[in-house]
Amino acid sequence: MLNDKTIVVGVTGGIAAYKACDVVSKLKKLGANIHVIMTKSAKEFVCPMTFQTLSNNFVIDDMFEDPKTWEVEHIELAKAADLFLIVPATANFIGKLANGIADDMLTTTAMATTSQLVIAPAMNSNMYNNPIVKENISRLKSYGYKFINPASGLLACGDVGAGKLEETSKIVEYVENYFESIKLDEDKKDLKGLKVLVTAGPTVESIDPVRYITNRSSGKMGYSIAQRAAKRGADVILLSGKTNIEKPKELYKYIEIESADDLYREILAEFSECDVVIQSAAVADYKPKNYSDRKIKKSDGDLVIELSRNKDIAQELGKIKGEKVLVGFAAETNDVLENASRKIKKKNLDFIVANDLTKTGAGFNSDTNIVRIIGANGDVCEYPKLLKTEVADVILDRVENILSQKK
C-alpha cells in the first residue's frame, strides 16, 4: 500500500538505532522508496551499509562528502519526501530542531522539507521527563510536527519508565495509517460546494494606544476547524483575531480582525453567502466605554475604567439565521452544561461545543481539547481528550449530518 511513496528515515545516535533497521525493512517490503539519513553518532551504533542494503539506496551521513548526484542532496530529498520519519529521535536532535539549529545533514534536510515530519523519541526516562525536553516537544507540536510517543518498560540503561522506542510494528502501522488518512482526505470531500465561515482567536479592545483588554485564546481550535473544513472540500472564510499560527493554505478567504466590532462588521459582510458559520472565536463581552487617543498617565490614585457591553454576535446572527447551520462555543469554568445549554436557545444555534477550562488538556493554548456537544434538542455527546484537529472533524461530521437532514 506504500507503492510510489518516498519516505525519508532519519536515524540519530541512540541505542535504539538498531530498531530503525527493522522499520526500514518493513516499510521497504510495503513498497515504499526509503532514503536514510544518519547522524555521525548514529554510525557508532549501526553501520551505514546495513541501511544501504535494506533500503537499496545510498545512505547519506555527511554534508560535505562527494555527492552521489549533481543535485543539492538535502534540498532534493526534502522535496521528494512524502513523509519524514525520525527513528529514534534523541533529546539532542529534538532540542536542535525545536530551536532552529541545522548543523548536519539530518537537521538541515528536516528543516527544508514541507512534508509531514514524524518523530519517534527514545531516551532515558529522566531525560524524556525533563521539562526542557517536554518544552521542546510541545514547541514542535505547535509547529505541526507529529510524535509517536515512547513506550514504558525496561530501558537499556536498566531504568524502568517512559522513554523506550515504540514497537517497530506500531511505528510502521502509524505510517500506514498516515497515508490511509491522506487517501481519505483526498476521497472525502463531503463539504464540497459549501461555504463555511469560521471565527477564531481573541478580540482586542483598546483602552489607549498602549493598553488593551483581551483574553487567552490561541486560535488553535478555530484554525483546526478551518483547515479540516478546507481539506474536506469546503470554501472556507476564516475571520481571525491576532494569533501566532500560520494561516491554512487552502483557505478561500482570510480576514484578520482586532475588536469585537471589527468581527461583527466582517461577519455580517460575509454572512449572506455562507451555508455554515462556526463561531469559535473568543469574543470580549465588554470594551472600554471611552477610548483615550493618548496614553493614560499613571497617577497616585486608582484608575477606574468603565466598560460597556459589546454586541452578542452569536445572538445577532441567530436572529437572521434562515436555513444556515450555526455552531457556537462555550468555554466555561463552572456549571458547564447549564451555562452552555442556555446559550443554544438564546442564540438560535444548531448545537454548541462546550469545554471545561479547568480540565487539563482542554481550552486555550493546548493542542488537545475535551468537549461536550449539546444539540438544539438537548442531547449531549461527551468525548475524551482529542487533538483539536480530531475535535474539528467531530464538529464537521455533525454539521454534515444536519445539512443532510435538511435536504
Q: What is the second-level CATH architecture of the largest domain?
A: 3-Layer(aba) Sandwich
Helix content: 25-40%
Radius of gyration: 25 Å
DSSP, total strands: 21
Biggest sheet details: 8 strands, mixed
Question: Going by CATH, what is the homologous superfamily of the largest domain?
Answer: CoaB-like
Gap from first CA to last CA:
37 Å
Describe the structure.
This protein has 407 residues and is an alpha/beta fold. The chain folds into two domains: 6-186, Flavin prenyltransferase-like (Rossmann fold), CATH 3.40.50; 189-291 and 305-406, Rossmann fold, CATH 3.40.50. The chain has helices at residues 17-29, 48-55, 73-80, 91-98, 105-112, 125-128, 131-142, 168-187, 220-231, 260-271, 313-319, 336-347, 388-406; strands spanning 6-11, 33-38, 83-89, 116-121, 146-147, 151-154, 160-164, 195-200, 205-206, 212-213, 235-240, 253-256, 276-279, 286-288, 307-309, 325-332, 351-356, 368-369, 371-375, 380-382, 386-387. The strands form six sheets. Strands 12-11-8-13-16-17-19-20 form an eight-stranded mixed beta sheet, with helices on both faces. Strands 2-1-3-4-5 form a five-stranded parallel beta sheet, sandwiched between helices. It has a two-stranded antiparallel ribbon with strand order 6-7. The radius of gyration is 25 Å and the shape is globular. The model has no long low-confidence stretch (mean pLDDT 91).
